[in-house]
Amino acid sequence: MRTQVAIIGAGPSGLLLGQLLYKAGIDNIIIERQSGEYVLGRIRAGILEQVTMDLVDQAGVGQRMHEEGLVHEGIELLFGGQRHRIDLSALTDGKKVMVYGQTELTRDLMQARQDAGLTTYYSAANVRVHGFDGQTPSVTFEHEGQSHTLECDFIAGCDGFHGVCRASVPQGAITEYEKVYPFGWLGLLSDTPPVSDELIYANTPRGFALCSQRSLTRSRYYLQVPLSDKVENWSDDAFWAELRKRLDGEANERLVTGASLEKSIAPLRSFVAEPLRFGRMFLAGDAGHIVPPTGAKGLNLAASDVAYLSQGFIEYYSEKSQAGLDHYSQRALARIWKAERFSWWFTSMMHHFPEEGAFGQRMQEAELAYLVQSHAASTALAENYVGLPMQAR
Ligand code: FAD
Ligand code: DHB
Fold first, then answer.
1. Which residues have CB under 8 Å from 264's CB, separation 6+?
2. In CATH, what number is assigned to the domain containing residue 128?
3. Domain for residue 362, yes or no?
4. Ligand 2 centroid – CA 220 distance (Å)
5. Residues in the chain, pLDDT under 50
6. Based on the domain organization, do 103 and 125 belong to the same domain?
7. How far apart are CA 172 and CA 282, in angstroms?
8. Contact between 19 and 61 (Cβ < 8 Å)
9. What is the pLDDT of residue 391?
10. Catalytic annotation on 143?
11. What is the atom index within ligand 1 of the atom nearest the CA of 9?
12. Is residue 20 domain-shared with residue 125, that is, in the same domain?
């Protein structure tokens, strides 16, 4: 079996890359460890930047996103018991973000791939990448009891943080930067109307809380919890009771509670691998970097990696130019590090760090007070939140 680009992983990076390459006439096969239903069952990100929306349009799968997605022009910061609106659009010459769940985007991409008759191996076992440091890379895997070898020109490692691609790089060839936070996010999804039209990011002495949403009838809420906490310890009632303690009076009046559709704890981590290219293998999305979720950059960074990488492949096949592929790692990392900085800063300002004590809490509140009073500081938040521009080269 042979293809031009073998894509490992059918998360948003792999599916989006596959669709963009297909549109450009570049043959690709995706190999995914999990089943399609499992991939669709993972509840993750919910906010798309303009850069991501543009790419989804370019991939030809934007119709439902535009019909059902909710355009947001601001966010609210809650601290010291008061809410303050950050007018993202006014501060960024009209830029906006879109509320559209990763699950929905994944579903649209899976459907488009199926409609185009493209090959995806789901539930593949023992996926291994070979020969990427030479001219003849290949991927081996098992599927429905049969062993397969896929020969290819390039391997795209879109297999997430725990994937096989980064793990297959010799240790001396890669540098990893990491910060692990001492807490996680407990998320709850419910078919209840959102508590507010816009997202509320709350800094409280009891810890961070986020009121997000997936639609006008579906809400997503998060609570900062210690890493030692277990999801089994959190009944729905306990979740709602704790959320109430972290919200203001008006939000408490409007909060509609209900049964959870999903509840899970995600640890928070900052991580970057350098470089993102190893001969004929490229890393994209969570395979190469992780941000803590505050500010919703994870999925959007995956999309900007894919924008640069797909451009590199398109230049290679249509113009016989290696320039885009040669520049991929450096271009992608320039944007990644800025998003890492923003996510780390927003996380540091909004979460409760017990070891920082009451002084730390006051520093955060002073920074937040400055942020909402200063046009310059609000603009810095807004321009990062809506997404920094892509670099031409
Ligand atoms: P993934 O979505 O991880 O996809 C990688 C795919 O590769 C998976 O389908 C995996 O099964 C497959 N794979 C792994 N190993 C192999 C292998 N050996 N062989 C074949 N396939 C393999 N971001 C936000 O912006 N907001 C959020 O609220 C948010 N919440 C998150 C919650 C969790 C629990 C996690 C893990 C991430 C969250 N993120 C969030 C981050 C965001 O979801 C990711 O940045 C995004 O999914 C990255 O997409 P990806 O395709 O690069 O990686
Ligand atoms: C969501 C997650 C985020 O990390 C964020 O900053 C905003 C929204 C969400 O899952 O809806």
1. 43, 186, 187, 231
2. 3.50.50.60
3. no
4. 8
5. none
6. yes
7. 17
8. yes
9. 78
10. no
11. 7
12. yes
**Which ligand has an atom closest to residue 46 CA?**
2
Provide the pairing of β-strand 200-203 with 260-274: unpaired
115 with 158, same domain: the answer is yes
Question: Please, which residues have CB within 8 angstroms of residue 316's CB and are 6 or more apart in sequence?
Answer: 322, 324, 325
**248 domain-assigned:** yes
Rounded to an integer, what distance in angstroms lies between the CA atom of residue 69 and that of residue 58?
A: 17
- Reference 287, options 273, 299, 266, 303; nearest CA is 273
Does the residue 92 lie in any domain?
Answer: no
* In a shared domain, residues 56 and 155: yes
Tokens coding 363: 């520093």
Instruction: Please provide the DSSP assignment of 144-159 as one string.
Output: TTEEEEEEEEEEEE--
- DSSP of 153-192: EEEEE---TT-HHHHTS-GGG-EEEEEEEEEEEEEEEESS
- Kindly report, residue by residue over 274-330, the tens digit of the pLDDT: 999 999 999 999 999 999 999 999 999 999 999 999 999 999 999 999 999 999 999
Q: Indicate whether residue 298 lines ligand 1 (CB < 6 A).
A: yes
> 286 CA distance to ligand 1 centroid (A)?
6
Is 375 a residue of the active site? no
| 207 vs 242: CA distance, rounded Å | 10
What is the number of domains present in the chain?
2
122 tagged catalytic: no
Instruction: Give yes or no for residue 163 CB within 6 A of ligand 1.
Output: yes
Residues 277 and 347 in one domain: yes
Nearest Cα residue to atom 9 of ligand 2: 46
Query: What ipTM goes with this model?
Result: 0.96
**pLDDT tens by residue, 74-131:** 999 999 999 999 999 999 999 999 999 999 999 999 999 999 999 999 999 999 999 9
User: Which is catalytic among the residues 95, 297, 328, 351?
Assistant: 297
- Tell whether ligand 2 has an atom less than 6 A from the beta carbon of residue 220: yes
Look up residue 171 and give its amino acid: Q
Q: Which 8-state DSSP code applies to residue 256? A: -
The backbone torsions φ and ψ at residue 260, rounded to the nearest 5 degrees and listed phi first, read -80, 140
Residue with tokens 């996380």: 347
In terms of residue numbers, what domain contains 228? 181-267
